[in-house]
TrEMBL record:
This is Cold shock domain-containing protein. Gene3D superfamilies: Nucleic acid-binding proteins, P-loop containing nucleotide triphosphate hydrolases. Residues 40-104 form the CSD domain. InterPro entries: CSD, CSP_DNA-bd, NA-bd_OB-fold, P-loop_NTPase. Keywords: Membrane, Transmembrane, Transmembrane helix. The lineage of its organism: Bacteria, Bacillati, Bacillota, Bacilli, Bacillales. Pfam families: CSD (PF00313). The chain crosses the membrane at residues 23-40.
Length: 517
């Protein structure tokens, strides 16, 4: 190749004929290109969509290189993330510059084999808040529930998923067992009364039946009894009752009659109370996730019969705390019209921003970590006034953080991880059920808005080819599917802000497009 280039320049020098400059320089450019194409260059991923299978890399030369998923070198799932440093072989096609043989540049590992120090994460996205010192907000709801239990009533807690039903139900149960820190924090005076209840808990799962509920609660009550506080005679009675319970359990396993099971359950509860009445002044029975029960379980009739029998026999200090998603009240009424009259209904509302901020502060208290204001604002905005997303986003932002001050960049990186990895499958499945008719077109316009809420006029202007009635019908369908919710007349918002972020990522909507809209 060198000889070829030398010959061209030598010919022009020795024989001064008219030779086009392009003819002279083109081989040079061609040679330079072929030499460079085998030398990997570096760049940063500016955009990539797993769904579409392509994206772009901003090269160190300032050129935007198109990259197809097939050109990514990876042992596992082929993908790129915005901001990643990559090496690639530059190429040119009819469509422009392309990146080939792309691989991610990993940071060099220190050969000194540094010790990896793990850190305890204080956020708990999968569990209810059991530590009273970490429980935030809900002052009015908590006071109303305490008043109900103080007056020997039963409490029914309901609301949408992620609203904190289990957390407040557990706190109420702990309170009846003598935990007073929340009473002191909220300045609640019980007029000298001291709760010292024995507590039994049961979390329903798919397939749970009345026998499971009855035997589960009774078994948990016996497990809760601290035998060390009882005399030898009482201990013997407790052991005898446990043996009787095992025999009774075998007899009742095939019994699905709510009335008969209620009679058996009440007799056992009274037996337990008589055993522990000199140490405890009541019993609390928590049944969580009641919405997972099938209608045929007929929990409404069982609860009504049980509560009425206990009241007739003057066991008013035995209270139920029932928890489940929005809709359980209707289910109980369907099973028995008067079942809900036996409960003080506690419907949990979305939390205020200051309550969500309190969750963050209390969770990080005494950990040596904090979250700056920008990070808090972004986390709270993504939570949509629900407590569970605060813990979900906080958990991964905490893991990402390196300097003990969780920043906006930590939260944004956690958000990206959630939508592209942790919740990716859930969101993929949800979106798969929305690819009907014009729903995709409507969703694309909804996520292009730079505002949290979207009004109808924005949609009408952006979708001029669709009739107003069709747009309204599509919005109604999205509302039924719990994708969006109506704020007030003609104004909508996404129910889950993280799903909106996922759609922005899927459609490739960037901030500049949102500002333009």
């Amino acid at each position: 190749m060198y000889f070829g280039l030398y010959s061209i320049f030598d010919i022009q020098h020795r024989y001064p004929i008219k030779v086009s400059k392009n003819l002279v320089y083109f081989p040079c450019i061609l040679l330079l290109f072929f030499l460079l194409r085998w030398l990997p260059v570096r760049g940063q991923v500016s955009k990539f969509s797993d769904f579409k299978g392509y994206g772009f890399i901003k090269g160190e030369d300032g050129i935007d290189y198109f990259v197809h998923i097939s050109q990514i070198i990876s042992d596992g799932f082929r993908t790129l993330k915005e901001g990643q440093l990559v090496e690639y072989e530059p190429a040119v096609s009819q469509r422009g510059p392309q990146a080939r043989a792309v691989h991610i540049v990993t940071k060099e590992i220190d050969s000194t084999n540094q010790k990896i120090v793990l850190k305890r994460n204080p956020f708990s996205p999968q569990d209810p808040i059991t530590d009273p010192s970490k429980f935030a907000g809900r002052k009015e709801a908590f006071i109303n529930a305490v008043s109900a239990l103080y007056n020997n009533k039963n409490v029914l807690v309901h609301g949408p998923r992620g609203i904190g039903k289990s957390s407040i139900s557990y706190q109420l149960t702990y309170l009846t067992q003598g935990e007073t820190s929340l009473l002191e924090k909220l300045n609640i005076d019980l007029d000298g009364y001291v709760f010292n209840y024995l507590a039994g808990r049961l979390v329903c799962t798919t397939g749970t039946n009345l026998n499971d509920i009855v035997n589960g609660l009774l078994g948990n009550l016996y497990d809760s009894i601290d035998s060390g506080n009882f005399s030898g005679e009482t201990k013997s009675k407790i052991e005898l009752n446990l043996n009787l319970l095992k025999i009774s359990k075998e007899k009742t396993e095939k019994n699905n009659n709510p009335t008969e099971l209620s009679s058996y359950f009440v007799s056992e509860i009274k037996r337990i109370y008589n055993l522990v009445s000199h140490n405890h002044n009541g019993i609390t029975l928590l049944i969580d996730e009641i919405d997972l029960l099938e209608d045929k379980v007929d929990i409404g009739s069982f609860l009504k019969a049980t509560i009425e029998m206990l009241r007739v026999d003057y066991f008013g200090n035995i209270s139920f705390i029932i928890s489940g998603v929005t809709g359980i009240t209707t289910s109980l009424i369907t099973q028995h019209p008067s079942s809900t009259r036996l409960f003080d209904v506690l419907e949990l509302q979305r939390m205020k921003d200051e309550e969500l901020e309190e969750i963050i502060d209390l969770t990080l208290h005494d950990t040596g970590y904090s979250m700056n204001n920008d990070a808090k604002r972004e986390t709270i905005a993504l939570a949509n006034r629900f407590p569970q997303p605060i813990h979900l986003i906080g958990f991964y932002a905490f893991n990402i953080n390196k300097d003990k001050v969780i920043s906006l960049s930590d939260v944004l990186e956690a958000k990206q991880y959630l939508i592209t990895n942790l919740k990716r499958q859930d969101f993929d499945n949800k979106f798969q059920g929305l690819k009907e008719g014009v729903m995709v077109d409507v969703l694309r316009v909804l996520v292009s808005s730079s505002f949290e809420t979207i009004n109808l006029s924005f949609l009408f202007n952006r979708l001029p080819d669709l009739s107003h009635s069709r747009i309204l019908g599509t919005l109604g369908t999205l509302e039924q599917k719990d994708i969006i919710e109506r704020q007030h007349r003609g104004v909508y918002r996404f129910r889950d802000p993280l799903f909106r972020v996922y759609l922005e990522w899927y459609f490739g909507v960037n901030q500049e497009e949102k500002r333009t809209s």
